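USER: For my understanding, would you kindly supply a protein sequence with its C-alpha cells?

ASSISTANT:
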Amino acid sequence: MKVYSKEDQIATINLVPGTSVYGEKLIEDGDNEYRLWNPNRSKLAAGLINGLSKLDILENEKILYLGASTGTTVSHISDIVIDGRIYAVEFSPITCKKLVRLASRRPNIVPILGDATKPKQYIHQVEKVDLVYCDVAQPTQTSLFIRNMNLFSKEDGRGLLMLKARSIDVVQKPKKIFKMQEKILKEKGFKVIEKIKLEPYEKDHICFLVERNF
C-alpha cells in the first residue's frame, strides 16, 4: 500500500495534482505531489498512525466504502487504488452531492446514494470487492458490516470495521462493547487479523481488520 510516512505524519501521492480535497496540505517532493493525511479527519489515517500494519491495499483493488460522507478518507484511498475502483455509499443526499463532485475529478470513485443497512438496494451497482470498509456509526454497525461482507466480499476478501462504542451503547464501557462485537464477528465466521484503538484521534473507537474464515 503506497502510504508515505515522515515524522509521525502520513501522506498519499495526489491523484489530482494541485487540488486539495478538504484543506489538507500539499507537499512537492521530486516528481510527486503528496497530500498530508490528517488523522483527526480520517479514522483510517488514525489507525495507520496507531499501528495498523496488516492492511495492504493494492493499486488495482476494488473497495466498497460504507459511510463515505464527503469523501475525506475515500479521496486518500483513491490516491492508492489508481487502477482500481471505490464504490462509495452515502445515505445523505446533501452529503452525496459533495461526493459526486469529488468523483467528477477522480474517475476511480463511484458515488452511490444508498442505505448501508439495506445492501440489496445497490447490489446491481457493486461488483465483488477486495475490501469492505465500514464507517457507519449506528447501533447495528457490526451487523450491517457483516451483511455487506457476505454479499460483496470476494472469497479472500477483507473487511475494515471502524467501530464507535457510544453508537452501540452509551452506558456500557467501551472495552466491554469492543469485546462483544469482536465475539459477534468471530461467531459469524470472520477472523480478526488486527484491532487498533483510535485514541487520541477518535474517542471510544476501535478498528477491526478481518478476513473471511469460511
User: Anything to note?
Assistant: The longest strand covers residues 153-164. The two ends are 26 Å apart (CA to CA).
